[in-house]
Amino acid sequence: MPLVEIADLKVSFSQYGSQIDAVRGVSFTLEQGESLGIVGESGSGKSVSCAALLRLLPATANVSAGRLKLDNIDVLKANREDLARLRGRSAAMIFQDPMTAFDPVFTIGHQIAETILAHRKVGKKQALAEAEQLLGRVEIKNARDVLSYYPHQLSGGMLQRAMIAMALSCRPKVLIADEPTTALDVTIQAQILQLIKKVQVEFGMALIMITHDLGVIAETVDRVLVMFNGEVMEHGPVQQIFDAPQHDYTKRLLASLHTSFERSREVDTKIAPALELRALAKTFRIKRRKGLFTTYSDFHAVQPVNIVLPRNQIVGLVGESGSGKTTTGLMAMRLTEPSGGQILVDGADISHLGSDDLKSYRRRMQIVFQDSYSALDPMMTLSQIIAEPLHIHGVGSGRGQTEKALDWLERVGLPRNFGSRYAHELSGGQRQRVAIARALILEPSVLVADEPTSALDVMVKAQIIGLLKQLQAEMGLSMLFISHDLSTVKSLTDSVVVMYRGRVVEQAPTDQIFANPQHPYTRALLDAIPATNPRDKRERTFLTPDAIASQTPRLTVIQTGLAPNSNPQLVTIAPGHHVEAIVTT
How does strand 174-178 pair with strand 206-211? Predict the structure, then answer.
């Protein structure tokens, strides 16, 4: 008998006196120990279908189904006691954003123990001991310490591990993972996916993986359900779906995995770079309280880095969270003041310019932020948002500014009548298009794009990247593209700078760095890229900081022409290819 049975599931939501159909006749089953992937873009009904299975939908939802069974219990007819047993013991859920799933005022240990106490007859001491054991099983090294931590004290990857531990606390038969790796770095994503597969086998659970990332599907599941607009487009074994997709939508999804673009035009080395960072560094002063005393220490977020962005080129800046790449991008824009070094725009040093003198350079330098929702003013219409830079810099009149804003709406692929809408009325991809229009309306020469596609669906991501590349070619833009998505970096950029713990550890032309990485951290990043076909999935080994340090290349004085130094330094190993190495005699 199947563990999950869903037949002709329909879900609609009551809104403003009308009904919005979110799920339209979805059917599937799940056997014990099986892995099912549900893939599709935002709004396709993936999460709503699984939330209906656990009766987690809001009161505005209207749910009907020919059959909706979990662990042989009719979910639609289940009473409160039945639901309490189903949630946790029959099925548990890992959410996309663990920070919202944990209560910020209780410790991690308290919340995991509370879940155990709610479903099993054990004492509090035993529940805490089991919580510690579970944290250890999800590969949290200092499990005993983490029990007393609050959610905000853990990184995204650690918090997701704690979320998995809490989901496993009642030993569920089905684990539902709802976009568990969307906002995580490529290395952390690979670790979490490997961990989910490991605990699935260890606990003998069935798995439902909800995602918009086909690389995640290729790595984790046996069967795939492709959804679009609330309906199932295609359903079959994962290898068959990847090798011989039948539906046009599935074909488009898979095609977006392999999007590539022409390289930028040749660099004129006689002209000064569009942007140059010389020995740019950032140190934060950290304040700590110890009883009655206060101590201060320096945190070197970015150690002196040298980055050149040639005209009409796209340079990728990659690394995991905490590597210093976003801080570097913000310093380049003078949105974060550097602790040292120089910022040169078209050969002119803007590092110490006052706000009045800096304003003229602001027209030449613009930024697109990762979170378009918080970057757009909710009280302004889209035309007002896009026209705001024109108003600030005194370009054109009121009517002319609005017309130019509407022209840019069209240029980024949105209808002119969207000008009267507000940011909350748009999807994530549409908001990012508006952010791009606002950044480019002044026709800058330098664009810093800070993770502009990290939270977007695979097809929307391909559209946004295509738009950026098209506008870069049309306008002769020079772009610093900050990302942890190495697949996108490979298809889009001309050269890549790899950052690790605030340092540049390797930089080279894109083709060269992907074909011949020299630094162990670069190789670890590339190894963590999700497979694009299930037959290519593999077990990965993840390097510790000590292993990365021990594997740092060692070059001789003869090879580098530099003086010996026991500290790693950036050396040239081929034209345009630099790697951090220890120079010996």
Answer: parallel
